[in-house]
Design goal:
This protein is α+β, with helices and mostly antiparallel strands. The protein contains 2 helices and 2 strands. The chain has a single domain, classed as 2-Layer Sandwich (Alpha-Beta Plaits), CATH 3.30.70.20. It has a two-stranded antiparallel sheet. The two termini are 20 Å apart. GO terms for molecular function: 4 iron, 4 sulfur cluster binding; metal ion binding.
């Protein structure tokens, strides 16, 4: 399952450099996560790094992009191949 940044985002800029897949980028109003690049840090870290550093807790799982741990690992392998 990819993550999503909600409108509670305060644009503090701490999440973008933490993403090992470069899935986070500035959007028109708030930061956005590309679900095609987000692996919830599977393959890189034990926990999603953006969630770890977010000061307002605005990065939940995206219900529109449900993926299993195995699917996230396959995505990681494709992104890092």
């Amino acid at each position: 399952m990819a993550l999503i940044i909600t409108d509670e985002c305060i644009n503090c800029d701490v999440c973008e450099p933490e993403c090992p897949n470069e899935a986070i980028a500035p959007g028109e109003e708030i930061y956005e996560i590309d679900p095609n690049k987000c692996t919830e840090c599977v393959g890189h870290y034990d926990t999603p790094q953006c969630v770890e550093v977010c000061p307002v807790d605005c990065i939940p799982k995206d219900p529109d992009h449900v993926e299993t741990e195995d699917q996230l690992m396959e995505k990681y392998k494709k992104l890092t191949a």
